[in-house]
Amino acid sequence: MSSENRVLSIEKSPLEGSAEAKHRRGVFVRTHPLIPSLSHQNQRDMDGELENHLLPVPSNSGRGDRLRIIQLSDQECVNGFSNHDDFRSKLSVRSEHTPKSPLKRGLLITIAVLIVIFTGAFTNTLHAQGFESSPNQENTPLSLPLLGETSQYPQLEEYLQIAIEQNPELQSLQFLFEAERERANEFGVMPDPELNINYDFNPMMSESRLGRFSVSAMQMFPWFGTLGSKKEAQQFSAEAQRSMIDSRQLEILRDIQITWFDIAEVEEQIRIADETFKLVGDLEQLVEIRYETASTGQADILRIQMEKQRIQNRIENLEDKLWPLRAKFNELLNRETGEEVISAEPQQQAELPYSAEEIAQLAKNQNPVFETLSLQESALQQQERTAELSGRPSFGIGLEVMGRDFGPMSMFPDSKESFIGMATIRLPIYRSRTKSQKQQISSRLQAVEMERVQAENRISSDLESTQETLRSSNRSIELLDNELIPRARQVLDILSEEYTSGNARFDELLQIQRELLDLEFERVEAVVNQNKAMARIERLVGGLRNEFRD
């Protein structure tokens, strides 16, 4: 129906200016096919607009006036229809919401992933900066004590190398050190970021449905320097563990050397006893010849046989003594207990080129025990600094993204996701824990200092005892080599000639033979004690055997 027809129909109606006509015009607008889906609020708004467009008709107006007023009102109504038609067209165009592209549908997830990636990258950057290896943290391989390039005992050096590679205790300590060093990776790392995902399944108000899905990420940061201090403290602890390994390695190598020298001593004594047994066998033939010629009695034959049995028993005892020594030695090398051990004749060592005071100073400067205590002290100092920094505030920053609900929000295409920045601060207002940690560390530092004093006293005492053994061994070797053994051999030769000529008793000959055997055993023991003392001093000063042998 055209606008002119609508005007004529209203003009001809007796109720053209009445409330009924106005009502009909309102029904016409609400039932117009161009705006079938207007909401009640829009309809109410349009009703109000129509009322405004319909001009009031004065009661004293004539028919011509009323006709002009109706025409003007109808024209404004038609214009209003056109305006609402345009508004509805816009709504219709916008309400035809095309499906979201995959990029737009995954926008919220992409933003959340970017937040996580950014936080993780920042954490990894701090992790990489905090764990660059320092020179002190390098895993230096365990090395042999400085035995010198031209050692007197090459076989012993090979055994020491085997022990370093195969000793189970050293391997266990090495694994503990690696674990302690790896434990430093736990420190200096940023706390794990927090990711929260919220969705309101049952909103109290319909308006809240527009943004009831949100994602937030939060990263906490300790006070500046806290992570680095923790890392350094653990690094010092790991280095202290490595120094303890070095100290224990020196002890094990010392035990290996001492056991090897014990084996060498027993084998050398067996060799000397075998030679003496052969000499006694030659002497037995001489006694039998003299007995056949009636130059001696049967008692001499019995004495020489008894002496042979005594020497044979001594050899067997020495051989039995080898078994536990070999078992102990092979245990230190992580080998079968019955495996053969190659030894060598113990060699006399030169005197130390240092005075007692110089050796004590070397021990204080190079003994791993003092290095361990120094590293423990450094670790405690870093822990004290960490406790101080832990008592300061920590803070965090984050980002929250409030997503779109694409159903209701399709009516508002210009609306976007909401980004909210977040920040938090933790205030350590309870100071008792920090004070307690500082007091504990202070007590431990004092304990380390007392351990250092005790270590100095113990090492000084051990050095004095070891050097006394070394000096005593040197005197014994000098006495045996220069006086006792040469004279005993001279006496044995004289008595052998006199016994052959019948001018000496046989018991005197046997007595000097026994004394010579004991003196040779004593010399072997003195040389071995000298080498053992050198090994102990080497342990106390941290492995300077090559300097002692220069």
From TrEMBL:
<keyword id="KW-0175">Coiled coil</keyword>
<keyword id="KW-0472">Membrane</keyword>
<protein>
    <recommendedName>
        <fullName>TolC family protein</fullName>
    </recommendedName>
</protein>
<feature type="coiled-coil region">
    <location>
        <begin position="438"/>
        <end position="483"/>
    </location>
</feature>
<feature type="transmembrane region" description="Helical">
    <location>
        <begin position="107"/>
        <end position="126"/>
    </location>
</feature>
<keyword id="KW-1133">Transmembrane helix</keyword>
<dbReference type="InterPro" id="IPR010131">
    <property type="entry name" value="MdtP/NodT-like"/>
</dbReference>
<feature type="coiled-coil region">
    <location>
        <begin position="301"/>
        <end position="328"/>
    </location>
</feature>
<feature type="region of interest" description="Disordered">
    <location>
        <begin position="1"/>
        <end position="23"/>
    </location>
</feature>
<keyword id="KW-0812">Transmembrane</keyword>
<dbReference type="GO" id="GO:0015562">
    <property type="term" value="F:efflux transmembrane transporter activity"/>
</dbReference>
